Amino acid sequence: MIDSAMVQPRAGLTGAAAVAQLADDMRRSESITRDDLETLGWTSGQLDALAGKARTFAQRLAGASA
Predict the structure, then answer these.
(1) What is the predicted pLDDT for the residue at 29?
(2) pLDDT tens digits for 5-45?
(3) Burial of 14 (0-12, 13-18, 19+ CB in 10 A)
(4) What are the tens digits of pLDDT across the range 52-66?
(5) How far are the Cα atoms of 19, 49, 65 from residue 3, in angstroms, in the given order?
(6) CA atoms of 13 and 8, how far apart (whole Å)
(7) Spatial distance between the Cα atoms of 13 and 19, rounded to a whole number of angstroms
(8) CB 28 within 8 A of CB 2
């Protein structure tokens, strides 16, 4: 489970900033779920639109740090 007490809502993020933040959020936990991401403030529409790009970006970041 993700602690959401100290995070800013994500609903206002758009474009590249949203993809980068979503990728970072995806990397926070090996078992992060859609519910966890919604708890962080992502909307369902954002997740539908951005998840693929963010997942790819997160995988690239993981490869770069490996």
Answers:
(1) 83
(2) 566 779 899 999 999 999 999 998 888 999 999 999 999 99
(3) exposed
(4) 999 999 999 888 765
(5) 20, 24, 24
(6) 10
(7) 9
(8) yes
